[in-house]
Amino acid sequence: MAEVTFLEALRQGLWEEMERDERVFILGEDVGLYGGAFKVTDGFAKKFGESRVIDTPISEAAIVGAAAGAAHMGLRPVAEMQFIDFISCAYDMLTNYVATARYRAGLATPMVVRGPCGGYVRGGPFHSQNPEAAFLHTPGLKIVYPATVRDAKGLIKSSIRDDDPVLYLEHKWLYRRIKEQLPEGEEILTPIGQARIAREGKHLSIITYGATLWKSLEAAAQLEQQDGVSVEVLDLRTLLPLDDAAIVSTVKKTNKVLIVHEDTRTGGIAGEIAARINEQAFEWLDGPIMRVTAHDVPLPYAPTLEDFVLPQTDDIVRAARWLSKY
Amino acid sequence: MALPATRPTGAFPSGAAGAALSTDQLLEIYYYLRLTRTLEERLVALYRQTKVIGGLFRSLGQEGESVASAYALERGRNKDILSPLIRNLGSMLVMGAQPIEILRQYMAKADSPTRGRELNVHFNDLEKGYLGQISHLGDMIPVMAGIALSFKMRGQPRVGLVYIGDGGTSTGTFHEGLNLAAVQRLPMVVVGEYNHWAYSTPPEKQFAVKDLADKAKGYGIPAVTVDGNDVFAVYEATKFALDRARRGKGVHFIEVKTYRRKGHAEHDDQHYVPKDVLDLWSKSNDPMDRYTQRILAADLVEQKELKEIDDRVRVAVDQATDACVNEPLPAAESALPDVYVDPPAAEKLWFKAL
Ligand SMILES: Cc1ncc(C[n+]2csc(CCOP(=O)(O)OP(=O)(O)O)c2C)c(N)n1
Ligand SMILES: [Mg+2]
Question: Do residue A90 and residue A164 come from a single domain?
Answer without folding.
Answer: yes
